[in-house]
UniProtKB/TrEMBL annotation:
Matching Pfam families: RINT1_TIP1 (PF04437)
CC annotations in GO: Dsl1/NZR complex
Positions in coiled-coil regions: 28-62
Name of this protein: RINT-1 family protein
Keywords: Coiled coil
InterPro entries, sorted: EXOC6PINT-1/Sec15/Tip20_C_dom2, RINT1_Tip20
Gene3D superfamilies cross-referenced by the UniProt entry: Dsl1p vesicle tethering complex, Tip20p subunit, domain D
Biological process, per Gene Ontology: endoplasmic reticulum to Golgi vesicle-mediated transport; regulation of ER to Golgi vesicle-mediated transport; retrograde vesicle-mediated transport, Golgi to endoplasmic reticulum
Length: 782
């Protein structure tokens, strides 16, 4: 049905009009042609299908045959394996072949060894053939030989140390070849130098081209060594030119000449060395700097002055003999601590001159040259530290035992500044001198050791001395202390007068001086840098048992500061020491205040018992007449004691602490006068006037030494102003407030009492105080 529809559609498509019938033959021919093509395609497809089926059948038959053949072969192998397993013939054959195979392996190995040795010899000969004409060309076979040596050593480790003699031989050949190459080039430059009369040439002259070319060839030979060596390499041409100076150095300083005496190293050896550098520095730089710049300017060693600056290269060639001299000298110095101390200082100065004067970096562009001092201290630091510590402690003990150690140095500062003892000044100077001994050291652990083992040790000893002084004072001045310890009459006599004040001022001034010195040092660049290094190391160090120089984190923290290793950035190197001295200073200040108060109580004892305050006198006391009165006779001693103590402390203490101590003492005096005189007695007009005159006399003495210092007595002075109100108003000023008027108003109420106080310009008293004071007048006894 579908076929019919398709035919019908086809005919409809081709025969759409009557004219299409005219082409019917053409249409039939086309249809016949298409049918023939389709039939041909069908025949071809049928033929290919038959061939594919036949090929598949043949492949299946062949595969089946192969499977049968494999199975037969497998069965045959299984049978033969059973036969072989039951026979010992193969083992016997293997045993017979073992020895010949071993011999064959040895012969093969020996042959390879010979080939390797032959190649080594060929490389050596090839390098020799290029010298001295072309060092660069000679480097190629030498480099190959050196790499072969390194590779053999690497393989030997993986092979459990095999071929020991072969590896050693190749290494020795490589080293010998390198020495031979350098010797050959050395000899060429040496011959040239003899022809030029070196070193008898003008230091300001220019060298000829042949000299420069010979210099350049030696540098060419060393370029790979310089670039790949992890340590400093002295330049071969500089070694050649420096050898004459090395010989001269040995003649003068490493022989039996007087100049070889170890004690004269700073007087003869170091100056000779530095003058030699000064003489030839410009000569080397002017003539050979372009060569070094061309060879190393674009390499990874371009930042190392020892390879870029001929002057520094010359220093590197001369330092080995100086190092030898220093080691010889150190061998003698360790037997003499005084010489050792001076030698290390001289050696550090020499190192500084080399660094700063010639920009010598020792091949370490990042950290710089550690100096001969650093090399020496790697071995002898502990010996030197102990020597310096011994000297410092001896000087400290000498300071403490000197005759004037415990005397106040009044000339140390101007008036208004706290005065330390001579001992405190000298201890600070001693600590400063210790700093100069180690501040030029480059290793952090060495500097920290000096700080803790010497400086902090001395500070601790001096702190203990000040603490002991305060404890002894407390023992002598306390009843319990005198009872249990016992105090001599001489000791008590030493505290009479200003003795106690002087003892305490010595402690206060000494502690204050050390504290100020430590604060100043904490802001210096050296100690700030040392603190930052300590913090960095403490934060990064995982081994808490060895923070630096064998010292644990806890030990350093206890001696330096509690914030070591924390994020707190307010700490300084002397935190713990400053804290300890601050406690001593504070305690001394407290004792000073107590002494002043005790002195006042003793001096005013008679004055407080004066009974005449209520006696009525006929002398006029109105207005300002009380100024005309003389101070009470019993006030003579208190004023003398007050003046004595003020005068002494004004010279010994700084203005701030002087005022602070006296403010507390005068406040206590104010309270004593208030309670033991004003509130304990009745006052007639004359008694009130006399009391006011006495307080003014006290204020006058205070004001002479402490401007505005009598403000501490303000409450008693205002109380006396109220107490001295007249019974009657004077004729010349009838508006003056009288005693009666004040009493009437003050006792009315608080509001009226406050108005009275305001009118009298009294600020420190309250209404209840005013009532108490007015009741002290005999006129108001009832």
């Amino acid at each position: 049905m579908e076929f019919d529809i398709r035919v019908e559609d086809y005919l409809d498509d081709k025969l759409q009009s009557t004219t299409d019938f005219d082409h019917l033959d053409t249409l039939l021919n086309s249809v016949e042609h298409q049918r023939s093509q389709l039939q041909s395609q069908l025949d071809n497809a049928t033929k290919e299908l038959e061939e594919a089926r036949r090929s598949s059948a043949e492949r299946q038959a062949a595969l089946a045959a192969q499977i049968d053949e494999f199975q037969k072969l497998q069965q045959s192998i299984d049978v033969r394996l059973k036969i072989v397993a039951a026979s010992d013939a193969p083992d016997e054959a293997i045993r017979r072949l073992e020895q010949p195979m071993k011999q064959l392996h040895k012969v093969d190995l020996a042959h390879r060894y010979l080939l390797l040795l032959q190649h080594v010899q060929e490389l050596r000969n090839a390098a020799r053939a290029h010298l001295p004409q072309s060092p660069k060309a000679a480097l190629e076979p030498y480099t190959e030989l050196k790499q072969l040596s390194l590779r053999l050593r690497e393989l030997q480790g993986a092979a459990d140390g095999a071929a020991v003699h072969l590896v050693a031989h190749v290494e020795s050949v490589a080293e010998a070849l390198w020495d031979e190459m350098k010797k050959t080039m050395w000899s060429e430059l040496e011959v040239l130098l003899k022809k030029r009369g070196w070193p008898n040439v003008d230091p300001e002259s220019e060298v000829d081209d042949e000299w420069i070319q010979c210099f350049e060839k030696l540098v060419d030979l060393q370029v790979p060594e310089v670039l790949y060596s992890p340590t400093l390499v002295t330049l071969l041409p500089m070694d050649v030119m420096a050898q004459i100076f090395v010989k001269e150095f040995r003649f003068h300083f490493l022989s039996d000449k007087p100049t070889s005496n170890p004690q004269g190293i700073n007087a003869h050896c170091f100056p000779w060395f530095l003058s030699l550098l000064d003489k030839w520095e410009i000569f080397f730089r002017e003539n050979f700097a372009p060569v070094l710049a061309a060879k190393f300017g674009q390499t990874e060693v371009s930042n190392k002055m020892v390879y870029m600056d001929p002057g520094c290269a010359f220093i590197a060639s001369m330092l080995p003999v100086m190092r030898e001299k220093v080691n010889v000298t150190m061998a003698e110095a360790v037997k003499d601590p005084a010489f050792l101390s001076s030698l290390l200082g001289q050696l550090m100065t020499f190192d500084d001159n080399i660094r700063s004067g010639y920009s010598y970096d020792g091949g370490d562009a990042e950290n710089g040259w550690e100096g001969l001092t650093g090399e020496v201290l790697n071995t002898h630091f502990r010996t030197w530290l102990e020597a310096e510590k011994k000297f410092a402690l001896e000087r400290f003990n000498g300071i403490m035992t000197s005759s004037d150690a415990r005397k106040i140095d009044y000339d140390f500062a101007v008036v208004g500044k706290t005065k330390p003892t001579f001992a405190a000044v000298r201890v600070a100077d001693l600590l400063r001198s210790v700093t100069t001994q180690y501040e030029r050291l480059r290793r952090f652990s060495h500097k920290l050791r000096f700080l803790i083992d010497i400086q902090l040790a001395i500070l601790d000893d001096y702190h203990d001395h000040l603490k002991g002084t305060l404890e002894a004072y407390q023992t002598m001045t306390s009843t319990v202390g005198r009872a249990f310890v016992g105090v001599t009459k001489e000791q008590l006599a030493a505290l009479e007068g200003t003795g106690a004040l002087e003892t305490l001022c010595k402690v206060y001034g000494s502690a204050d001086h050390i504290i100020n010195a430590l604060h100043d040092w904490s802001n210096e660049e050296f100690f700030v840098t040392l603190w930052e290094q300590l913090q960095t190391r403490a934060k990064a160090n995982e081994d808490q048992s060895n923070l630096a120089g064998g010292m644990s984190y806890d030990h350093v923290k206890d001696r330096i500061s509690s914030v070591v290793g924390t994020e707190d950035d307010t700490g300084v190197l002397f935190d713990e020491t400053i804290s300890a001295y601050t406690m001593r200073r504070k305690r001394a200040q407290e004792f000073l205040t107590q002494v002043l108060i005790q002195n006042q109580k003793k001096a005013f004892a008679a004055y407080l018992k004066r009974p005449q305050w209520s006696t009525i006198s006929d002398e006029p006391t109105s207005g300002e007449a009380y100024y005309q009165l003389a101070p009470t006779a019993e006030l003579g001693e208190p004023l003398a004691v007050l003046k004595r103590d003020l005068d002494f402390l004004s010279h010994a203490l700084g203005t701030a602490v002087f005022r602070r101590i006296w403010r507390e003492a005068l406040e206590e005096l104010n309270n004593m006068l208030w309670s033991d005189v004003l509130m304990a007695n009745k006052f007639a007009a004359s008694g009130a006037a006399q009391f006011r005159r006495d307080v003014d006399a006290i204020s006058s003495v205070v004001e002479r030494y402490i401007p505005d210092g009598s403000i501490a007595l303000e409450s008693i002075k205002e109380a006396l102003h109220l107490l001295n109100l007249p019974v009657e108003a004077p004729e010349e000023n009838s508006n003056t407030m009288t005693l009666k008027n004040a009493v009437d108003r003050v006792f009315t109420d608080n509001t009226e009492a406050k108005k009275v106080l305001e009118e009298l310009e009294i600020e420190s008293l309250s209404p209840p105080h005013a009532r108490q004071i007015l009741q002290r007048r005999v006129e108001n006894a009832e």
